[in-house]
Amino acid sequence: MAHVHNVRVSRLYFLRGNLSPGDVERLAGELLVDPVVEGYALWPVIPGNNEGERLAIEVAYHPGVTDPVAENLLQRARFLGLHVEAAATAVRYEFEGELSPSDLEAIARQALCNEIIQYASLHPLQPAFLPRCAPNLQVETIPLRQADDAELERLSAGRVLSLSLAEMQAIRAEFRRLGRDPTDVELETLAQTWSEHCQHKAFKARILYREPGRTEEIPGLLATYIRAATERLNRPWVRSAFVDNAGIIALEGEPWEVSFKVETHNHPSALEPFGGANTGIGGVIRDILGVSARPIACTDVLCFGPLDLPPQDVPAGTLHPRRLAEGVIAGIEDYGNKMGLPTVSGAVLYDPGYTANPLVYCGCLGLAPAGAHRRNPQPGDLCVALGGRTGRDGLHGATFSSAELTHQTGQTVGSVVQIGNPITEKALTEAILRLRDETLYHAITDCGAGGFSSAVGEMGRDVGAEVDLAAAPLKYPGLRPWEIWLSEAQERMVLAVPPENLARLREICDAMDVEWTVLGRFTGDGRLRVRYGEQVVADLEMSFLHEGWPRPTLRAEWQPPPFPEPTLDLPDDLTPLLLRMLSHPDVASKEAIIRRYDHEVQGATVVKPLVGAQSAGPSDAAVLHPLELSTWQGLALGCGICPSYGQIDPYAMAWAAVDEAVRNVVCVGADPERVALLDNFCWGNPHLPDRLGALVRAARGCHDAALAYGTPLISGKDSLNNEYVDPQGQKRAIPPTLLISSLGIVPDIRRAVTMDLKSPGDLLYIVGETGAELGGSLYYRLHGALGRSVPRPRPEAAGAMRALHACMRRGLVRACHDLSEGGLGVAAAEMALAGRLGMELALDALPRSPEVERDDVALFSESAGRFLVEVAPENASAFEEGMAGHACACLGRVLAGDAFRILGLSGQAVASCTVAKLVSAWRGREVDQDEHGATLS
Quick check: 15 and 82 in contact, CB under 8 A? Predict the structure, then answer.
């Protein structure tokens, strides 16, 4: 709004309780205000509220939505001995300028207020305290036994159960056998347990698959491809794969184990980006706590629509990509920083296909004493809940995440949105680590999707459990039993605790101000019984709950898309194209995002997200050396993601993602023989044959690449149904997207390598062969094309990586960078701008296939398995000897000045500029932009 001259922001705190003016002054002075930079006033006086001078908007949470600041205020007030009965917060925005009420309403709606969780007013708000009310004991009996199939389908849709007709029929048959109808608690429990989000039904389904020249029946993607690769490799250092909240590997010569998990929080982030990403990080941290490990680092990979999308092109019922990006990044920053965890690795991609369905991948790394994770509850153990209180947060989160988004989703399932409280989770973390060290529990898991229902149901699967919901601490009264049971309120864990250990647990939790309660016990009878006081609200056999769902048979088909290979003129000067690539949103500097995250906290980050002469170059991976380790071993974290390839061939995309993830950690010194992978599939509707056919090819590619590189898959997650249905009923799926995260062991962090150029006169080698492989490349996308010559699998790259790593361990490599988006051209430019040194390369020395006949193909091909390596002249012979038998050639040298030159296949300069020009383009200062998105520095 051009007529806004100034904006003043104030925080508002509403308090209820027996408080004197002096008490309120004490709260403000000791808890709420930084006296160095802030002032305050007490209601009803509001600074600057002079009519005619400023117009104002006040924004607050809806009643019942988690307000973490208010929660922490109540807790701290108790420490001060002040009786604050209730608290709420709001934000006041005061504007100077020529603005009408309709202008203010537009600002509130488009920039300040998310109506799913907040409300706004142009007048002073009244405090949104929840009314006092009695417990709600209402339990509904669902008339299911006599329902016909049409009624079953309506029931599933109306209650947001996301169950198929066959699944509803199976439930009907079970309760006919029992001779009664289910309660709402039982039906909701079955829907949560059988949801795609929790049960991964598409990956366990029998699939009838067809592609040109091939027809087969696949027993299940998880067993046939994903888990099978790990089982065939049978690496002795893999401690846990696909059975726990996170994958676990051992450290050689150390009494420690490392855990790693990556989750997605896509649908919640699409509705409320701050809360969705915030609780995504909080949830994956609890996954690490769920394997009894200390969280030590976070990762994030984000996919958004174009940031410069015209407002009129934003799909109905969705948020603008810029607003999504701002909220998601702020949510990750808020949780990770407050938890004291470094966010050290990630990526940000932009594509129109993510406009309505952003992807938010949140990862966490953990460290635990070897053998510390206990996972077997015993009959007689107490079922103990720790952490935050239970509210209506996240109801139907599991089933909602198993369905497609529509233009009305925010209006119909706003209760699925959760708000996190990292301060509560920080205390919970410290308490759990104390409980672990004193071996006070037999099993532990987090309350994620499905809340208590999922946590108790999964933990008690083999023994049975009995729970009394009346014991659950609530944020506010009035919740029905099924809401308490299914709530996805954050910062909660469930433990199986021997009765004799309860007193010590109480001491530890009380000392750390972590709320705890005994919900019930594990029984040994194989049943799940849920009571509210004396009223039984659910009684199910664990066997039916976990194994009674009908395994579906799905049809899948894949056809090669008819994308033509574009015919492009070859420019005499490729410099403008190279600069456009550097300023493209997928490649350009992400420093503005990275600097918001603390990547130094805990003091373990050896190779950081930004490296080089001015700590501004894009690192291939992060390297950590946790303080607990007694050797020089380190942990490398990287990732691979290339969705544009998936639109051509998902099999090739999966290979390329594995290849990139492994190369990322090898670049910084990880041993390719000690790399573990995580797979996270984000896809469309698996019940559509073309979507599922693409998923089959990607799973097979993931399997084949993992075997070729010898890298076991230790954990993963699928997020399906990432589709948007517009008001006309048209479906738009995201691009098929597979994120591969890599965890590698660096044998000696003193030999860790970064990607920035180090010294003039050093030689530059390329490792790997270049083919005419531009399908899905950044070069083609800049020309509005995809092509079909997608980079092919190169299993020979595994041997080259082993040889390169051996050279690194001998100290022969000064810098190393992987070739990915933009190929050799972008990789060379990034090394130069990171080191603030020039370079000269000659393409005629490039190891290449006969089809590489043009300079643009040689420079911008995205062939897999390649590295650009800096070697000191005195080490050149040893390096060449170490790489003998692999595609490797010296292309040029590092220059002392500012010159960046690339000589073409004929020896003539085809790209030439200063390093300063490269830096300017990479920081997003070039005005020549493409149609795919705005730059982000």
Answer: no
